[in-house]
Amino acid sequence: MIDTRKLVFFSLLVAMGTTLHVVEGMIPNPFPLPGVKLGLANIVTVVAVYFYGLREGLAVTVARVFLGSLIGGMFLSPGFLLSLTGAVISTLVMSLLLHGAPGFSIKGVSVAGAITHNIGQLLAASLILRSSSIFYYLPFLLLAGTATGMITGHRLSILVARLEKTGIMCRHEG
Amino acid sequence: MTRADRYLIAGVLCAALLAAVLIVFRWQTGSGRTCAVIKIQGELAGIIELSDKRKTYEFRGKTGPVILEVAGKRIRMVEATCPDRICVMHGWIERAGESIVCVPNEISISITANGSAPLDAVTR
Questions:
Q1: pLDDT under 70: residue ranges of chain B
Q2: What pLDDT was estimated at residue A26?
Q3: Is B12 an interface residue toward A (CB < 8 Å)?
Q4: Do the bridges between strand B65-71 and strand B74-79 make them parallel or antiparallel, or are there none, so unpaired?
Q5: CA closest to B10 among chain A residues
Q6: Does the pLDDT value for residue A174 go beyond 50?
Q7: Given this model, what pLDDT does residue B30 score?
Q8: How many CA atoms lie within 13 A of A37 on its CB side?
Q9: A129 vs B121: CB contact, 8 Å cut-off?
């Protein structure tokens, strides 16, 4: 049976994720480091993983990356492959921390998501370039990921608390 | 922030620091390995490692002998028998991708690093 309520929230999450993905791509990067961004679209992934689970989170994330890069004109470009790899890896890790490892708050999960996104991107980039020298970039991305992960994590903890209070989304168990 | 969060963030920062230290270390040990590739009339005539020690090399160009000098990880053309000495006036080169060309002698000197130019690739 199709759960209509879930379908609606699912569509909303994909739409919001796509919007964040596209809008974030339009903001000029204020740092001299390419690839550093806030990771606002990750908010939607965390919400999906938190309230529904890994499968749903992955579906929302992959749909968001596909739609976002189609709209942004980056479909199947190297940037798209980096986004996809980073997003999938970070979704897996965040789901593991949210559902498998007690003790982490949304903030910690967000930081883990940001840095695993960066590590995934570097892995994809080193495969595309066939060179491991891109990993020289890792310390910068780890620092940036920790900072941006804490910022989005702070937003997320407010958002999740409010969503739970209103009760429009109930926490997925198991 | 829970205790696990703090451990996670501290762990990541330590990993970043460790990676940075390792990278700086590798940079320093690996940076002395630039080489100059010498080609005469399109043929490979020699590969010279750019070391700190002063050393001169002699090659035979089309118009006569040319003398190269390596010192301080740089290389230059010291003497050549070509008419306008553009190659000699070019001075020192040291970075990967730089080159000195002497057209009358049909000699080119170009610097290559071990696998890594200043830019590997550009992506958007």
A1: 27-33, 114-124
A2: 86
A3: yes
A4: antiparallel
A5: A146
A6: no
A7: 56
A8: 20
A9: yes
